[in-house]
Design brief:
By secondary structure, the chain is α/β, with parallel strands linked by helices. The chain is built from 15 helices and 17 strands. It has helices spanning 16-26, 44-49, 69-85, 129-176, 180-207, 219-229, 231-234, 254-274, 309-312, 330-340, 392-401, 413-422, 440-450, 468-476, 488-503, and strands at residues 30-35, 38-42, 89-97, 103-115, 118-127, 216-217, 239-244, 250-251, 283-290, 295-302, 344-350, 354-362, 384-388, 406-410, 428-432, 458-462, 481-483. It has a 5-stranded antiparallel β-sheet. It has a 5-stranded mixed β-sheet with strand order 7-9-10-12-11. A 5-stranded parallel β-sheet has the order 14-13-15-16-17.
């Protein structure tokens, strides 16, 4: 040993550059070095992020390998700005493309660095796909909530004038009298009103919160509503085939079932756009049928390109999309809805042949109708009726159409309470459910306390139930309910039933 040489000293022979390279390779975030949009170096984290096993597979490739034209142009603008300002760039999100074609969102911070003796751009990348999707879903939920509130309000406001148009049409028909031409004209007018009513019902279904336990849904009506809602999305290029057989009602909320079916049909429609065109006309089939063991089945099948086998088991996973479009939440939401209703949702798919989603739901057990005293006929009995509605035109129309009876009209809940507390000799009360200040529910509660038994004579008229309080109220009372718009025939039948039950 040479004199003066220090002992117990380890002399590193590895250059600083090599040690720096080891740190970069071990970094958890992606690091990409590029010049003129061509990759010079990337670490294993960046390679894995983009779906490549070996970083060397990407060296020498252009950024367009995993960035679309718009994202590439935006990145070029930001790098130009960094060059002019001489300062690193703040984090920015970009949508990138993995090797398998799936998408991801990366947050990139950029700076300049000398690399092999020349300036290069260093991108520090972090995968924020889950965070971005969660943020998008939150924003979407906020938009849907606002849209649902708007839809409920619009439906309610349309239903009031629609009601007195319906009733006014009946009055006009009585004044004009029968005749082949007048009958044809009135039938055409009613067809138009039916179409408007159907649109309003769809708006109410979209806006309506979950139905209370014990609710049932008519599959035929659910499928018809979904067909109307998706008519524009399906369009003329895709044949939508409905094979709806007669089935019992199923357990569940009509609005939730419509949403689940809309997601499944929407997935089928999107599948035709996500793969190369096939040599057959695109078709989506919705089929319902009665199954054994008290269950009902619904199938949504398409003759599209199908789902690859390795993806079939993941189609109901949140944020996973086999089609490479959307947020990957539609099928997950549908699956959760069906399971919560006590049903099952499964999928079967063959590449090149198509995909079938199968729903099974328990049938709703119908309760036996309560036998009632035969109702007196509207044309032989004279009733005293109070109409409570904040829309004056509805009260006037009902007075004209119920001319055989004694009909009083008030336009507020407060007036109704005062009238009924002072004079309880009414055979029936046609009461609007949702009114400003004092609602129909408030009127019912007050009269039940002040004049016990009179609350049984209420028939509730509703232009749209879109609050949990109103929905719970209607499920807890036995009173007859009429959804606006309604016909005079429905009014007379509801009055007859209510008066018969109240008198029994």
């Amino acid at each position: 040993m040479t004199e003066g040489q220090p002992t117990n000293t380890v002399v590193s022979t590895a250059p600083a550059e090599s040690r720096f390279r080891n740190v970069i390779d071990a970094a958890p975030d992606g690091i990409v070095v590029s010049r003129e949009a061509t990759i010079l170096f990337l670490n294993p984290a960046a390679s894995r992020m983009l779906g490549y096993d070996d970083p060397e597979d990407l060296v020498g490739k252009h950024m367009s390998t995993f960035l679309g034209p718009d994202e590439l142009a935006r990145m070029g603008e930001r790098i130009g700005h960094m060059l002019r300002e001489g300062r690193p760039l703040a984090p920015q999100e970009y949508r990138a493309r993995r090797l398998d074609g799936s998408s991801l969102v990366v947050e990139i911070s950029s700076l300049f660095l000398d690399w092999d003796g020349a300036p290069a751009t260093v991108a520090l990348a972090r995968d924020v796909t889950d965070r971005a999707r969660a943020s998008e879903q939150l924003a979407r939920s906020d938009r849907l909530s606002a849209l649902g509130t708007l839809a409920a309000g619009v439906a309610h406001e349309i239903n009031n004038p629609l009601s007195y148009v319906w009733l006014g049409l009946s009055s006009l028909e009585k004044l004009v009298g029968p005749g082949p031409e007048t009958t044809r004209i009135f039938d055409e007018l009613r067809t138009g009103l039916d179409r408007v009513s159907a649109i309003v019902r769809d708006l109410q279904t979209f806006a309506r919160p979950e139905t209370a336990p014990g609710a049932s849904a008519d599959l035929g009506a659910v499928i018809a509503a979904v067909e109307r809602l998706l008519a524009h999305a399906v369009g003329p290029r895709i044949e939508l085939v409905l094979e709806v057989s007669e089935t019992p009602h199923v357990v569940g909320s009509p609005s939730r079932l419509e949403q689940a079916l809309a997601h499944l049909i929407g997935h089928a429609v999107q599948s035709f756009d996500s793969r190369p065109a096939l040599d057959r006309a695109p078709r989506v089939t919705v089929r319902s049928q009665r199954l054994e063991s008290g269950r009902v089945g619904i199938e949504v099948s398409d003759n599209g390109p199908g789902i690859p086998p390795e993806m079939v088991d993941r189609v109901f996973d949140p944020f996973f999309t086999a089609l490479g479009v959307g947020a990957g939440l539609g099928l997950a939401i549908s699956h959760r809805m069906i399971v919560q209703l006590g049903g099952e949702l499964s999928v079967e798919s063959r590449v090149g042949e198509g995909t079938t989603f199968r729903i099974t739901l328990p049938a709703h057990e119908e309760t036996s109708p309560v036998s009632a005293t035969p109702a007196p006929r509207a044309d032989t009995a004279r009733w005293r009726i109070l109409v409570v509605d904040d829309e004056p035109a509805i009260g006037r129309c009902l007075q004209r159409l119920l001319y055989r009876h004694e009909v009083d009209v008030v336009t507020s809940g407060a007036e109704a309470v005062a009238r009924l507390c002072a004079d309880g000799a009414y055979d029936a009360v046609l009461c609007d459910l949702m009114m400003p200040s004092v609602t129909g529910m408030d009127v019912h509660a007050t009269i039940k306390k002040e004049r016990p038994g009179m609350e049984r004579r209420f028939v509730f008229m509703s232009g749209g139930v879109f609050t949990r309080k109103a929905m719970t109220f209607l499920t807890e009372i036995p009173n007859v309910r009429l959804d606006k718009p309604f016909s005079i025939t429905a009014i007379e039948a509801a009055l007859a039933e209510t008066i018969a039950l109240a008198g029994s």
